[in-house]
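ingest -> validate -> predict -> emit
validate: passed (alphabet ok, no gaps, 68 aa)
predict: started
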Amino acid sequence: MDRLALLLVIIGALNWGLIGLFQFDLVATLFGGQSSLLSRIVYSLVGIAGVYSITLLFRERERTTPKE
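emit:
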């Protein structure tokens, strides 16, 4: 689940980078405009992944011991 959330957050970040730098919304272009159902689903999944990823900030990291 963590990897899926991270992947969606990366997609969202790249899309926002394209919007900021080039005024180009890749998600809207691929899925038929900002108000199309598919685009809204992708935007929603990215948003949910972002909220889920907040929990990653507060988790304890697993400590691994180096193999000898």
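The chain has a mean pLDDT of 92.
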